[in-house]
Input
Amino acid sequence: MLVLKVKEEEFDLDHVAFVFIDCQNDFITGTLGDIEAQKALKVIENVAEIPMKYAYATADTHYDKEYLNSREGQKLPIKHCIIDDYGSKGWDLPSKLNRILFDKINFTKINKYSFGSLDLPIILKNIENLECIVFVGFCTDICVIANVLITQAEFVNEIPIVVIEDGCAGTSPEKHKAALDVMRSCQIDVVSYDDIEVLPVVGEVFSKE
Output
């Protein structure tokens, strides 16, 4: 049995859900990508390597012919995460992350068509004896904060919700920081990757590397 230690709290790793928000190519190296997201991806890949039982990835999803006429497209007229019958490179997860996550026993990919997924907290609610939810992903000030707060509203402070700050990136460094501050105000546990450890019940520390 392994436990996830987050600062001073410990959780049975089999009762922790890890949520990867919109970790898609377009937010990393594509139309909306930047160097901060590329840095965060390295942390996200390390988190994905943790031997978790429950892994979920949301996918921002738009259709080519509809996007620019949508409310989001009018406010952000940059096509991104466009899907067709076969997906698309921008919509896909990076190949290494995709490979790691699809090897998980319980991995679920959730397509979403707006910033927040109303399906996500319902899915998480169905996990028996859930002790903690951990979030990483993009963009901190849009889809990450939207999904974190929707999830918190569903759980009504029943369990800790953790955001790994260096496993996220925002639309700018300033907005990333501002979103993290808002989440702290809402009693979300914002931590760095160095604040978490995977430990056996007895014995040596499991390596996160």
Notes: The mean pLDDT is 92.
